[in-house]
Amino acid sequence: METIHFKTVDPVSQDLLRDASQKGIGLNWERYEKQQPQDGFLRLGLCCPYGCMQGPCRIDPFGRGTQSGICGLDRDGMVAAFLLRLSLQGALETMALHPGLCNAEIAWPAPLASKAAAVPGETGGQPLSLAEILESIRMLARPSAAPETLIRQAIRLGLLGVGLRGQAKPESAVRGIRVGYGLLAGEAIRIGVTGRIPQATAEALLKEAAGLKNPEVHLVSLGDWIPAGENYLPIACTSGEAETVLSSGKLNLLIAGDGTDPGVLPLCGKIKVSVISPANNAGTAEILKRARNAFDRRITDAFTPETALIAEGRVSLGNNNVLSVLKNGASARIALIGGADTLLHSLGHLPTELAKALRAEDHAVASWGDAALWMMKQDLPIGVLDAQEGPPTAVRALTEAGRLPSLMGICFTGLRNSREFTLALGLAALGLKVLIATPLPLWGSEKVRALLRENLAVAGGILAHFDHPVRPDEILDWFLRS
Listing from the earlier edge strand, what are the strands of the sheet with 253-256? Predict the structure, then answer.
């Protein structure tokens, strides 16, 4: 464990990882290390994404082996189709999470409307619609479209994803949020929550638990931003630390909602933490009873975090509130930095170092997702945006206030799913400067990367990415040059 600092910058997390290792508890880090080296064909986009049952086909990136699929598909067509497949998956995920928005007409603020109309393929003012989904599925049924067509369609899906998310209206302007290992301090019955659970379930549990004493009952999220009343559930850790917190022995019960990582359930079985799914229709009384029984049978653990390790903040949701956290003088430069944990980087290193450097360069910084939680834990003066809708909300707020030119760039420090990739692509298609700090599967074709750059440049947009885990100084240089 001499390389523990390569895993996380948090000393408390480092202690927990050492403890888990001594107990023989395998976590996400062990699975990640066993995966190395990860599939180089997929990393380059040279593994065929079509819905064909004749493969799977791969192309040799070094030019010594096969240079086409069984059907004759070359590397440019394969990488372009991979890009479209990611965009399609992201658009479908957006629709699944916001089914009520699928029939809503997409309305762009005036400056963004002209950018959207400039995207290749938007002819005669033809608006984006859900027909883009069906067209993309048709294209990916069998190789037939040229790389240029596939790339344009991927960009249109990116715009569709941003447009759909832009229709969501926040329930309130601001929500409170608390984060940190201090939430695990002291004696209390603790119920962990991971994945997506209904807001009504979270609120019912909080209400039922509010009057319980000796011991108190606390609900804590393991990295997911779960609305409950006027606040979010307290968040004990970022998503990358969820299994680490479970291994601490401080949780008596886990509620595992939709989207829970598959590795969480066997881990709970090994450390004997009971799991309840919201789909089981267990009432609040039953959940609290099971948590109390587990608390009574607990084995005292040596992990005793300090109560001071709690950061508190307010999450800005409405346009006016977003603008208020970005004010730093009339000519302030603004940077949006957020995203999910990725095991490619030492957890917390990239977002915190980048925020410090940009603040020193007189940038107002706003963040979302795991990156925002890391910045809060470091007590950095940043604006906090909603984990799901933060970037498009900030862009719309700045656009409507006439302050979009102050936005120097948007950096995704990590991508948790294809939906976030589609969002990043769509924001670049609207003429924004976007950077993704994790490698994208586009490096197998120089032609595809060039075509993507050219198509996004029509509206003035940039989608920057690297073929290696990026350093904070590389991203800082990108912001200062953008």
Answer: 217-221, 189-194, 253-256, 274-276
